[in-house]
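Subject: Interface between my chains keeps coming out wrong

I've been trying for a while to get a sensible model of this assembly. When I model each chain on its own everything looks fine, but I need the whole thing in one frame so I can look at the contacts. Pasting all components below, labels as-is. Any help appreciated, I'm running out of ideas.
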Amino acid sequence: MIWSCGAALVALIVCAPLAALGWQAWGASAGHWSHLAQYVLPQAAANTGLLLLGVGALTAVLGTGSAWLVSAYEFRGRRILSWALLLPLAVPTYIIAFAYLDLLHPIGPVQGAIRALLGYDSPRQFRLPDLRSLPGAVFVLGCALYPYVYLSTRAMFMTQAANVLEAARTLGAGCYAAFWRVALPMARPAIAVGLSLALLETLNDIGASEFLGVQTLTVSVYTTWITRSDLASAAQIALTMLVIVVGLILLERHGRRRQRYAAAQRMRPMQPLRLHGWRALLAAGLCALPVMLGFVAPALYLLWETQKRLHLVGGVSRQLWAAAGNTLAIAGAATLITLACGLVVAWAARATRDSGRRRLTQLYARAAGMGYAVPGTVLAIGLLTPLGLFDQALSALLGTTGLVLMGSAAALVCAYAIRFLAIACGGVEAGLARIPPSLEQASRLLGESAGGTLRRVHLPLLRPALGAAALLVFVDAMKELPATLLLRPMNFDTLATWLYGEAARGTYEEGAVAALAIVAAGLIPVILLARGQEKMPETRDRDQKPKRTAVDRHDPAPVHGDAPALAGAAHISDKQP
Amino acid sequence: MKSPRFALSTLFGALCVAGATLAAPALAAEEVTLYTTREPKLIQPLLDAYTKESGVKVNTVFVKDGLLERVKAEGDKSPADVLMTVDIGNLLDLVDGGVTQAAPSKALESVVPANLRGADGSWYALSLRDRVLYVEKELPVNSFHYEDLADPKWKGKVCIRSGQHPYNTGLVAAMIAHDGAEATEKWLRGVKANLARKAAGGDRDVARDILGGICDIGLANAYYVGQMKNAEPGSDARKWGDAIKVVRPTFAKARDGGTHVNISGAAVARHAPHKAEAVKLLEYLVSVPAQTLYAQANYEYPVREGVKLDPVMAGLGPLKVDALSVADIAKYRKQASELVDKVGFDN
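Reply #2:
Try treating it as a single job with all components included. I did that and got this:
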């Protein structure tokens, strides 16, 4: 009971900003819709659709393709590539966009080299097409976001595919048939989970799209609010988008409802085939390409810009250190709280799985993930009202004068927790799904309480899932910009806002140091995440030996159970029937 | 015991700890709090100079968008004393949104011309930002009307940032005020047809793209020229700045022949805990030393007469401002934004 109450509270908190937006939207006249429908929405919807389609295709190909290559084949460099493929997660999309605009500009190094090669000496004689376009945005976002798909599909290939694939090979399927007819259909849920995260990021992105001149729906929400000072109408568009997003996610689940994904009898990694000669080189090259595009090129660019300017900046300033400290502190606090909330929500759903309250707790779990489905700026605007009301009430209650939440970084921690709860929830849910109910039955039978069972039985088993979710939340919180800009307390900078401060002045190359710091700070959790991921099968093998029969008999685990953090979208996107 | 109570109390505890450790120190008497959408790097030197001169500490919150919504949500507990923005539209939104108060001041009224402040002291302009033409430096263009930007002879030669950016909607609004909505719509279609690339990026990208051979002319704010042409020799910004020259356009129909300007400005917050300090800060910002910093460090045009300009900016000649008052232009802002949508300027 108390768990469901906790879950209800969390769901309520997440829904508060959305309710505030609904309240805003209610007050608006519908007059602007004719303007929007006539001049804005057709183009914005088309742009958004094409952008999602393009980014979806690119991330699916890069993510799934590279995951398959590093899982099914053995070649030189595979070990490094298998974790390096995650590195673009450390670089915010707006930084990748900045970097590529500079790198690919007519006066940048790439086109300069091409001109030198072709014997032209002025960009007026020869130029490549401009990056500021829809294809440019697809390229940039695809390179930045494919790791979401990679992470979930890789986990899936590592554990679930082995037996079926070996059977397929025994039955005479070649490499291609094994991939197209067996591995790919089996990976569909994992791809869907990764894709839904990548596409939500794309949909809610404002930095890169605006910078590259792509008028998406999110950009028009923003324009309506900022340029026409019409928050009510902006809230209406944002909520309409939210409804469509939730609808699409439900549709995808509906499409898969009849499919069953059997849990493998024995979970072990597939035996990779060794490649030789040009095939090995090709495989290594194909896997290295996304890493180069999504991480190495932008990171080298930032390093180069930083070293060019180090003498101007005079080393790393005290404020930058302070900003780095703030970033780590609030991202850390947000991670802890997000995980705790995720645990409460997921455990409530688990504890009531056989009772009449099941539907209710599942609803809470879905609601808890809504924060990820709205753009950060919109969420932050929605959050202002409840935060303000809470602060007013608290100060009336205590008779103080200050603003407890909005006057401190607590508002930021709140915002991050609401935004990234989806990741924590889904991670814990997927992790729990792998633990057979017989374990808690046994524990309760032996006299342990519900809380004690969670603490002594489930938490230790959940550790890898929790760790992965924590790292993802941490990295995302560190990169967060729009909500931070709106909700931060006075005299407070994070690395992202510091970088924004430079970029706002139009001197974004001076922000190279801050950008590099974000990337560097993001690298550590990403590498930890990657290493944890690579180690998972063996630890699980060891941990789970004694309970395999239980797993098989009672609890066909969701196939994406191995992508704990990534099943983040699960509670809104992917619940196995 | 790991129980929901434990989890919830951890949650609350963590919030409190985060609040307590990261909250700003309690306000002392000699402090004033500024909420601003202006770039930190531009404003901080001014604030530091003020603190040095007066001993008053200036707390800052830099936000990008949503200043109005934030101050509204904070209500009467808001610590904000001064609200500062760029773009007259944003500033008037604050006034119309009811989060400012009248702050009459003899010192401010004597410095800031009447068309650059609210009648009752509800807002004051602090600096002017003229929107000018960047031209490839070899081209024989020496005078220009904003209307010429739609001339087909510039087909594929024009660069500009998003039509929905306040700097551009401000200009379009002024165009509506001068030429009427119909002519402005036609003009926007003409400019759109002349674009060399998407209407995106920032103002400095116009100079960079002129150097990159993407375009020949483009509209951008003048102060970036000061930044770029004063940048360290050999740096990227300097190369961009050196690739262009500046022409101050005028409106074809206006007899006075003035250039479109937008402003940066400020107002005193409605629930300002330190109203007197707030007015003092505003008075400082229009004083000779502060206006000199605006002119020489930020390269903006001062609102105060007779302040010495940066040499690069002085080289552009005296600024003749379009006779329409900024508040009148701001009335057409919404219509301007809708026209930009209508012609699909940013698509």
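Reply #3:
Confirming on my end. Residues 537-577 of chain A have pLDDT under 50 and may be disordered.
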